[in-house]
């Protein structure tokens, strides 16, 4: 019976994450790029100066957390196991050319993320305990007069969070520790519940206090590890780049354990994995950005450009180049196993194994705490402030089931719900195009 349910849902998942959603997300990114005059290109330097120049400032204006704490929490939820496993899966099934199309999705994703954050901040509101709440549900209610569609988005978010943001992540941690150190998954479940509980039960302020230190550490550690591999294999980088470009437009021939890939596979898988890892257009990151202290929505939205750049153009690209320069993409491996092998071969001694294990642990834990606020905000929209405490307690309890259970169906269902979040979110963004242009002109004065 369970096998049949999984089979049925696999078909639903393939449909939901299929060509129509990819076209909708990429089409929205293209439209917004034209609508904003390519703001992710025109204001790229401004965005980086805004982010890097104000890492320690609390921001001016109204809000709950500092601008950097907001982007750190968003990155905590975005930069995750998908950056390790997702890129490998795309290259395994779509060939090296998938990495090129992953970057294309990132170019448009920077604009989409900027726009959804800007509009989310414009329509945010304060809840009873003073926490700023925002996201597609509030845009749909306060901006477009569609509270029922806001409820749909909130429900999808609060449910998807338990899978993709909780149980899948705790399962990854438990599996990594069992494989690396032989630690019983039940022990991992108890320890992880305690750690997550310490953070999540303290609310948003406790979450951002953790992510503002954890995210820079985990990103820098992973980048250094990948950077060392690329330095040691510097001579292979031109060949890797050539494989990416050639595969993007000509497809990849079958080689080793690799089954071969057409151009369409490279395009579809590269774009799909790119959208999955940076989450642009899915509506998750604006929920925490909406809590930031800022004097104007566009100022915080610039952090969205930075966020996608780090996720896609730094972490994903370095992962992809490691896989290509070490040659592991030609082996019959996929997902985290391929990435682990790449780091194992690329770094001396046990360092490769350590980097991947630490990466999985920190990436997964940061996602666990970051996504809790997303799901909680969906529950608050639906049921009010009385939902906060029960949701947090349920979140901590779900960590145990994730660490100790088999999650094939949970992963698939949450993946589908996560994709469905894009539909009301895109309606919210596109329906707010006029106010978006007004906000940009108001902030930059010249549009």
Descriptive tags:
447 residues; Hydantoin permease; 21 helices; 2 strands; globular
Task: Kindly describe this structure.
The protein is an all-alpha fold and 447 residues long. The chain has a single domain, classed as Orthogonal Bundle (Hydantoin permease). It has 21 helices and 2 strands. The chain has helices spanning 2-16, 19-35, 39-42, 44-52, 67-78, 81-94, 97-122, 136-142, 147-181, 185-200, 203-232, 237-250, 263-278, 285-289, 297-325, 335-346, 351-383, 388-404, 408-420, 422-430, 433-444, and strands at residues 125-126, 132-133. The chain has a two-stranded antiparallel ribbon. α17 runs antiparallel to α18. The chain is globular, with a radius of gyration of 21 Å. It starts with a helix and ends with a helix. The model has no long low-confidence stretch (mean pLDDT 85).
Topology:
Layout: H1 2-16, H2 19-35, H3 39-42, H4 44-52, H5 67-78, H6 81-94, H7 97-122, E1 125-126, E2 132-133, H8 136-142, H9 147-181, H10 185-200, H11 203-232, H12 237-250, H13 263-278, H14 285-289, H15 297-325, H16 335-346, H17 351-383, H18 388-404, H19 408-420, H20 422-430, H21 433-444
Short description:
The protein is mainly alpha-helical and 447 residues long. The protein has 21 helices and two strands. It has a single domain, classed as Orthogonal Bundle (Hydantoin permease).
């Amino acid at each position: 019976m369970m096998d049949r349910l999984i089979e049925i849902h696999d078909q639903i998942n393939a449909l939901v994450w299929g060509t129509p959603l990819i076209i909708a997300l990429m089409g929205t990114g293209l439209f917004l790029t034209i609508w904003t005059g390519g703001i992710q290109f025109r204001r790229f330097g401004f965005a980086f100066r805004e982010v890097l120049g104000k890492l320690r400032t609390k921001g001016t204006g109204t809000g709950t957390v500092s601008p950097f704490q907001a982007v750190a929490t968003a990155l905590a939820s975005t930069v995750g196991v998908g950056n390790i496993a997702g890129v490998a899966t795309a290259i395994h099934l779509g060939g090296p050319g998938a990495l090129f199309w992953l970057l294309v999705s990132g170019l448009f994703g920077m604009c989409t993320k900027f726009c959804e954050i800007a509009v989310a901040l414009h329509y945010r509101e304060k809840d009873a305990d003073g926490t700023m709440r925002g996201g597609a549900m509030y845009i749909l209610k306060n901006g477009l007069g569609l509270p029922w569609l806001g409820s749909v988005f909130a429900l999808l978010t609060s449910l998807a969070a338990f899978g993709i943001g909780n149980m899948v992540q705790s399962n990854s941690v438990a599996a990594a520790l069992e494989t690396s150190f032989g630690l019983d998954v039940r022990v991992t479940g108890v320890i992880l519940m305690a750690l997550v509980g310490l953070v999540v039960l303290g609310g948003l302020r406790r979450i951002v206090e953790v992510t503002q230190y954890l995210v820079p550490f985990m990103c820098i550690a992973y980048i250094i590890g990948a950077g060392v591999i690329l330095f040691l294999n510097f001579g292979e980088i031109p060949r890797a780049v050539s494989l990416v470009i050639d595969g993007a437009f000509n497809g990849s021939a079958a080689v080793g354990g690799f089954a071969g890939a057409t151009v369409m596979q490279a395009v579809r898988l590269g774009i799909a994995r790119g959208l999955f890892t940076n989450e642009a257009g899915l509506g998750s990151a604006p929920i925490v950005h909406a809590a930031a202290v800022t004097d104007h929505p566009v100022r915080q939205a610039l952090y969205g450009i930075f966020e996608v750049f780090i996720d896609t153009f730094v972490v994903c690209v370095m992962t992809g180049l490691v896989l290509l320069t070490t040659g592991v993409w030609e082996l019959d491996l996929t997902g985290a196993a391929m990435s682990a092998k790449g780091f194992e071969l690329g770094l001396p001694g046990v360092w490769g194994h350590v980097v991947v294990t630490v990466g999985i642990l920190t990436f997964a834990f940061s996602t666990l705490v970051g996504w809790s606020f997303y799901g909680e905000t969906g529950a608050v929209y639906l049921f009010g402030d009385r939902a906060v405490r029960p949701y947090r307690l349920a979140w901590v309890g779900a960590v145990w089931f994730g660490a100790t259970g088999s999650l094939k169906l949970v992963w698939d269902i949450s993946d589908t719900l996560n994709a469905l979040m894009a539909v009301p979110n895109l309606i919210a963004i596109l329906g707010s195009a006029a106010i978006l242009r007004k906000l940009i002109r108001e902030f930059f004065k010249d549009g």
